[in-house]
């Protein structure tokens, strides 16, 4: 029988089977000629079988396909396959990837080779795509998890392994909830995550998970469903971001710093801190202890500990065998008692913690800046265990915050011990006042003054005689409270004794002292209700000035006392300066007040405009409108003089409303001229915001001039929110709803709490010009400015620095991230025509500078 007969043996069966194969089949004889080429092979190579049969197999690019050099010696050898992955060139020049399985067979006396070839081009592409996606996923710092519709993990990336400790092989096939959740995982949060994995929109929330070692990890979970090409939801996709550290710092730091800023008592701060710790670490019971200078323990916070437990610790001396806390304070290092019952340091004290189910305790010392141990922060556990990584991160933050709180407490206590205070009013008494006056005069610069106001309660003897001494004490307490509310930062109020009070005012000249005296008198005008009686309240005030009137302490006080009696002779409820010359200054003030009233009534004020520049690109951010007064007789009067005068005589609200209308009118003129000024800022008084009609006045002015609300920025000082009952915040919210911008001016000079600042509907935060003077040389000033910038950034506010005069100040502010600056470095407050010329020059300078930079960049 010929070899041809061998190949055609049972042709119907063999050919039918080979022809119907989904794989390409190529049969090569011992001479390397192609003897068979099925339909699938035609598709793979893109060539008709008639072009291939009888030709050398090399024409198919299968040069490595060789017939056996000998006949198979065994059936096993005859059936042996060789599998490989090959690249095949098609007739049209394209290439595909394929798997080739090779078998050697014997047909009669002749051996042959059969190749089964399958096109895997798409599989290779998908494999390479998956490898690329895996490589990309493994490079992200966020853990990625994909689950099937049973919540079983089908994929996890390298970040998942790093975060939770499970390799992709360990995680694959495991139920995600069972693998990652634990005892304190919020069940509602867990159900939300599961629901989102079946939802196209998905969701995002914080959730407590657990790693392979059982340690807690707070994550931000972003979860959604994934659909297959047929639109069916087959997988859930989750990205998990470790927020443990940021969460602890955010919650613990914000809580503690806000409490300190609000001057909350130390015990309350400690309790709040411990409660927050137990919220983010539910498996601990925490406590904060203070260690005094004698080495005695004093509990500050431990809201989850029984009261008698804390009381039993009070006054106990630290030592090497005084539990975890006493030992930690003694040695100045962290102390861990994994098992309180057997730890030798706990033996004298273990009964109490064991009785309430506490089995382990880890305590860390709190140290002051000079290295002294001033407290301890402790974690108690209800099981014998060591702290986790999560606990360690929390304790690091708590130790720092505890040090801050305790040092504040010690500082306050030290001040209280050193100072002498009046028992009734809490004010500095006569002895302390003498020190304060001496300190103020010693620190007074050559060109400055210290003003001393001596106040005597009018008709106080009548109160004592008619209502009794208890009523008299109540009267004096309220009198002191009203004075305290009016005293400015840096000034000092004290009680000499009886019904005599003193206000020490460093760096105040006669005019400033007179304004303060008027404000003090005004604050006392409201009668005080004692029982059923309305008791009138007023004071006679005498003022002396250092060094003009006297250079020694006793003379200065005596002259203020003399001036006070002059005020009483003048009818009480008024003030007098010691000398006739100073009384002349008061008369001058009256003349200025009359002139200012005329200027306001006759449109005698004008607005000038100071440009505000963006630090990012030098673009014009806007301009600030500043009121100026030039009187025909008195000449140019400084705003520092006429603005306080306007506040005192009740003209400030009228001036502010005039400023809004004038600014809107000027903005319209500039827009008609084609000048691009994005925004104009107008200063308002806190009094304006107590007027509920302010929003309608602003809206009318904008409408009258056809201006959008976002071109107007209203500036107000921190004093606008000092009185929570004034309605100012409601007015601000209405203005913000109109689209008008609000800017908090001179921030950093008042005492606004951070919590209150966050509630204000403001868009800008302005740093007072006073900080610019020594920002380049004074570390404290730089720290304050840095803090203001950071506060603005955290609240997403535009931060503007006023009073910038040097390139050094500009460079420093830019580095800190301050958004906008204004000051003499760029331009003073300018008249409208001057500003227009300045804008043209400034724009030309910017264009020229840009051209130079582009030229340098293009140069070879």
Question: Your description of this structure?
Answer:
This protein has 860 residues and is of the alpha+beta class. It has five domains: 3-119, PAS domain (Beta-Lactamase, 2-Layer Sandwich), CATH 3.30.450.20; 124-242, PAS domain (Beta-Lactamase, 2-Layer Sandwich); 252-417, GAF domain (Beta-Lactamase, 2-Layer Sandwich); 430-578, Reverse transcriptase/Diguanylate cyclase domain (Alpha-Beta Plaits, 2-Layer Sandwich), CATH 3.30.70.270; 605-843, TIM Barrel (Alpha-Beta Barrel). It contains 30 helices and 31 strands. Helix 10 runs parallel beside helix 15, helix 11 (266-280) runs antiparallel to helix 15 (389-418) and helix 17 (460-467) packs antiparallel against helix 18 (469-486). The longest helix is centred in the middle third of the chain and has 30 residues, at 389-418. The radius of gyration is 42 Å and the shape is flat. The model is unreliable at 69-80 (pLDDT under 50).
The dominant shape is flat
Mean of the pLDDT scores?
A: 85
Helical content class: 40-55%
What's the total helix number?
A: 30
Note the beta-strand portion: 15-25%
Name the CATH class of the largest domain: Alpha Beta
Question: What is the CATH topology descriptor of the largest domain?
Answer: TIM Barrel
Q: Enumerate the spans where pLDDT stays under 50 for 5 or more consecutive residues.
A: 69-80
Count of individual domains: 5
Can you count the beta strands?
31
Q: CATH homologous superfamily of the largest domain - what is it?
A: EAL domain
């Amino acid at each position: 029988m010929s070899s041809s007969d061998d190949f055609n043996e049972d042709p119907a069966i063999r050919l039918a089977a080979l022809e119907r194969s989904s794989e390409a089949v190529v049969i090569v004889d011992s001479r390397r000629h192609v003897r068979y080429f099925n339909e699938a092979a035609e598709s793979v190579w893109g060539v008709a079988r008639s072009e291939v049969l009888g030709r050398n197999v090399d024409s198919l690019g299968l040069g490595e396909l060789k017939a056996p050099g000998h006949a198979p010696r065994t059936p096993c050898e005859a059936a042996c396959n060789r599998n490989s992955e090959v690249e095949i060139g098609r007739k049209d020049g394209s290439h595909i990837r394929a798997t080739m399985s090779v078998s050697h067979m014997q047909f009669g006396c002749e051996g042959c080779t059969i190749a089964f070839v399958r096109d895997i081009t798409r599989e290779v592409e998908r494999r390479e795509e998956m490898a690329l996606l895996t490589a990309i996923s493994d490079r992200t710092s966020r853990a990625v998890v994909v689950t099937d519709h049973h919540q079983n993990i089908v994929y996890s990336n390298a970040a998942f392994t790093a975060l939770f400790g499970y390799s992709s092989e360990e995680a694959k096939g495991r139920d995600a909830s069972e693998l990652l959740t634990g005892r304190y995982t919020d069940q509602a949060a867990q159900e939300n995550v599961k629901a989102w994995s079946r939802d196209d929109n998905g969701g995002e929330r914080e959730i407590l998970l657990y790693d392979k070692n059982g340690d807690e990890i707070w994550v931000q979970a972003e979860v959604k469903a994934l659909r297959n090409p047929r639109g069916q939801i087959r997988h859930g996709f989750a990205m998990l971001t470790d927020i443990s550290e940021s969460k602890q710092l955010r919650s613990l730091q914000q809580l503690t710093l806000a409490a300190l800023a609000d001057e909350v008592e130390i015990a309350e701060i400690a309790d709040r801190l411990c409660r927050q710790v137990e919220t983010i670490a539910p498996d601990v019971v925490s406590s904060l202890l203070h260690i005094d200078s004698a080495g005695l323990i004093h509990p500050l916070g431990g809201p989850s500990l029984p009261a008698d437990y804390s009381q039993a610790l009070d006054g106990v001396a630290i030592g090497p065998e005084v539990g975890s806390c006493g030992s930690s304070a003694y040695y100045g290092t962290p102390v861990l008692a994994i098992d309180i019952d057997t730890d030798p340091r706990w033996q004298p004290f273990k009964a109490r913690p064991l009785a309430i189910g506490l089995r382990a305790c880890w305590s860390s010392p709190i140290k002051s800046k000079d290295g002294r141990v001033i407290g301890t922060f402790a974690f108690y556990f209800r099981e014998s265990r060591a702290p986790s990584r999560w606990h360690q991160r929390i304790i690091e933050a708590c130790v720092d915050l505890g040090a801050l709180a305790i040092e504040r407490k010690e500082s306050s206590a030290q001040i209280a011990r050193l100072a002498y205070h009046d028992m009734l009013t809490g004010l500095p008494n006569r002895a302390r006042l003498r020190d304060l006056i001496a300190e103020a005069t010693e620190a007074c610069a050559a060109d400055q003054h210290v003003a001393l106001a001596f106040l005597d309660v009018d008709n106080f003897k009548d109160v004592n005689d008619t209502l009794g001494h208890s009523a008299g004490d109540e009267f004096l307490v309220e009198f002191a409270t009203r004075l305290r509310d009016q005293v400015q930062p840096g000034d000092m109020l004290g009680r000499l004794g009886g019904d005599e009070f003193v206000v020490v005012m460093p760096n105040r000249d006669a005019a400033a002292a007179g304004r303060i005296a008027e404000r003090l008198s005004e604050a006392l005008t409201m009668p005080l209700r004692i029982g059923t009686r309305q008791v009138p309240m007023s004071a006679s005030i005498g003022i002396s000035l250092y060094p003009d009137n006297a250079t020694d302490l006793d003379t200065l006080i005596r002259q203020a006392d003399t001036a006070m009696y002059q005020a009483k002779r003048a009818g009480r409820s008024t003030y007098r300066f010691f000398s006739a010359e100073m009384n002349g200054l008061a008369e001058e003030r009256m003349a200025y007040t009359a002139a200012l009233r005329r200027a306001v009534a006759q449109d005698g004020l004008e607005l000038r405009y100071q440009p505000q520049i963006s630090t990012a690109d030098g673009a014009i951010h806007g301009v600030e409108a500043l009121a100026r007064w030039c009187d025909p007789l008195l000449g140019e009067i400084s705003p520092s003089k006429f603005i306080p005068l306007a506040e005192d005589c009740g003209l400030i609200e009228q001036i502010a409303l005039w400023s809004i209308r004038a600014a809107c009118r000027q903005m319209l003129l500039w827009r008609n001229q084609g000048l691009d000024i994005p925004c104009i800022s107008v200063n308002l008084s806190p009094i304006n915001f107590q007027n509920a009609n302010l929003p309608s006045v602003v809206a009318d002015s904008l409408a009258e001039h056809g201006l959008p609300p976002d071109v107007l920025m209203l500036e107000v000082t921190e004093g606008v929110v000092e009185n929570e009952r004034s309605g100012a915040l409601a007015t601000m919210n209405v203005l913000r709803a109109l689209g008008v911008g609000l800017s908090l001016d001179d921030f950093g000079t008042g005492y606004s709490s951070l919590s209150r600042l966050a509630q204000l509907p403001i868009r800008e935060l302005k740093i007072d010009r006073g900080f610019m003077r020594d920002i380049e040389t004074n570390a404290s000033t730089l720290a304050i400015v840095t803090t203001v910038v950071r506060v603005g950034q955290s609240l997403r506010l535009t931060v503007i620095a006023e009073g910038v005069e040097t390139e050094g100040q500009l460079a420093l502010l830019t580095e800190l991230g301050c958004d906008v600056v204004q000051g003499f470095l760029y331009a003073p407050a300018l008249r409208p025509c001057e500003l227009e010329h300045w804008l043209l020059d400034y724009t030309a300078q910017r264009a020229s500078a840009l051209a130079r930079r582009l030229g340098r960049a293009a140069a070879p």
